[in-house]
Design brief:
By secondary structure, this protein is α+β, with helices and mostly antiparallel strands. It has 5 helices and 4 strands.
């Protein structure tokens, strides 16, 4: 093949890639515009995440002073259970260290494992849309870094965590309605 022909095929390849990229970009924009239920559910995740994380920090700042005090994370496990039992949503505390304090916090399925990997790579959010029994669900995960020195009262292993490094995540499963 001559250099001119190779160059022409290379330009055709670049053109095809550009068209595929524009097509996918258009599909992504169309999905956002054409799926307001998904956008509402994403916003619900953001609100829940802000509420849960803000409350955990406030409780830790104001009520955890000694290792014997109830850790905010332990209290929130009960809150998460209540939300699940009432049928609102499912949220799980996920370990990202590889050595969970509670074995129930270990990532269980491929979504949770992929989410932890993505968050540990520096991404601020990970999601997947799934379907079960004819209903769509948004599965999302957000990172939990060590934000207070007090966290190490109950979790001494977190002293080794780098600033901003996720030591865990909140994993959400919310029906898209």
């Amino acid at each position: 093949m001559s250099g001119g022909i190779r160059k022409a095929w290379g330009l055709v390849g670049i053109g095809v890639l550009a068209l595929v990229g524009l097509s996918l970009w258009g599909q992504e924009k169309a999905t956002k515009k054409d799926d307001p239920a998904l956008e509402r559910t994403r916003k619900e995740v953001q609100i829940l995440d802000d509420v849960y994380k803000t409350a955990i920090v406030l409780i830790t700042e104001n009520y955890v002073d000694e290792k014997s005090d109830l850790a905010a994370g332990a209290a929130f496990q009960k809150l998460f259970q209540a939300m699940r039992e009432k049928g609102h949503h499912d949220v799980r505390l996920l370990d990202a260290t590889g050595e969970p304090y509670d074995p129930d916090n270990a990532p269980r399925d491929e979504f949770e494992k992929a989410a932890i990997k993505s968050l540990k790579e520096g991404n601020a959010y990970y999601e997947q849309i799934t379907e079960k029994n004819g209903k769509r669900y948004l599965r999302a995960a957000t990172p939990i870094p060590v934000v207070l020195k007090k966290c190490t009262l109950c979790h001494s292993a977190y002293e080794k965590a780098k600033a901003g490094e996720p030591i865990g995540a909140l994993g959400y499963t919310i029906e898209i309605e």
